[in-house]
Amino acid sequence: MNMTNDQQQQQQLSPRTVAAINHLRRIKPLDGYAAECYRSLSGKNLVQLKRRNIPLRDNGDFLDIVVYQSRVIGIQILTSSGNVGRGIALVNEDGTPCNDDSQITVEMSNVLTTTNVASSSSSNRTSSSSGKSNNMSSAHNPPAAPLNPLSNIDNDNILQYGIIAFGGLLVLKLVVNALSSLTFLLLPLLYFYASSNCPRTDSFDAKKELKRVMRGAHLPEEQQPKSWVEKNLNRIAASISTELATSLGYEVRVTDYFGVARVSAVKVPVAGYEYYWIGIINRWQYIGARELKINND
């Protein structure tokens, strides 16, 4: 059986490193976190953390990569027993890269691994079963009705209602500010300006906007590549990722809101995500993405 490079890398990585990569991909699915394992000239197995195919640290050669106290730590030194390690923080709790080189002592028995994640899930299931037995033994507590998962249509409706509610809050804020000043008289002019400068439907270039998202153009300035080489490598990686993701097709849907704004949704089945932009005042602004529910039936 032939294995892909990604499968071979997964087999070479430790359970702690695999758990760390899964943790990063869960909290930052669009940041492209990955780990690469290799053997040094001295014969040691080292691992390197990458973000969009770019090493997160210049000196990013570690014995292991772990999740400790909700932060991702690169282990540089391990005791002979392997119970304690020392290293530096690579990624903060919120998924943003960490530039602090302070040494951190890690108790390896308390780090996140694929084993203790599975044990935690099993424990939760056991607790749930025990709770159900206790409820059945009580004559005064009838069983609760099961909750049905939301369908894709329900998710779409919730998203649309959320966008309308968000727009309503913006309009309400504008009205309150207008009533507290003389700008209330300018509201018709503002509406006319917004409607006359609302971007056309054919001005939305799905591939161009997807490339901007893939290279992280929507991220804060401190998370952007700094050097000329990093910027160009990031652009190349984003172009390749976009072409691969859209190679089997994608779907574009544009919804108009009162002639003032338009919301564009791009569904990319290969990537497993649907991306959203809002078009207002002659520009398209990325607002987020949601994971698609894949039906395996």
Description:
- The chain has about 300 residues and is of the alpha+beta class.
- It has 7 helices and 11 strands.
- The protein has a 4-stranded antiparallel sheet with strand order 4-5-6-7. It has a 4-stranded antiparallel sheet with strand order 8-9-10-11, with helices on one face. A 3-stranded antiparallel sheet has the order 1-2-3.
- β2 and β3 form a beta hairpin.
- The chain starts with a helix and ends in a 6-residue tail after the last strand.
Keywords:
four-stranded antiparallel β-sheet; 25% strand; alpha+beta; elongated
Fraction in beta strands: 15-25%
- Report the sheet with the most strands, covering strand number, pairing sense and barrel closure: 4 strands, antiparallel
- The helix/strand order is HHEEEEEEEHHHHHEEEE
Rounded to the nearest angstrom, the radius of gyration is 25 Å
Shape: elongated
What is the number of beta strands?
Answer: 11
Helix content: 25-40%
Structural class: alpha+beta
Q: Report strand order across the widest sheet.
A: 4-5-6-7
Through-space gap between termini: 26 Å
Total DSSP helices: 7
The stretches of 5 or more residues where confidence is low (pLDDT under 50) are: 126-148
Overall mean pLDDT score? 77
Q: What is the topological layout?
A:
Blueprint: H1 5-12, H2 15-27, E1 33-39, E2 45-51, E3 54-55, E4 64-68, E5 71-78, E6 84-91, E7 104-107, H3 114-137, H4 152-179, H5 187-196, H6 206-214, H7 228-246, E8 251-257, E9 261-268, E10 273-280, E11 283-291
Antiparallel strand pairs: 1-2, 2-3, 4-5, 5-6, 6-7, 8-9, 9-10, 10-11
Helix pairs in contact: 6-7
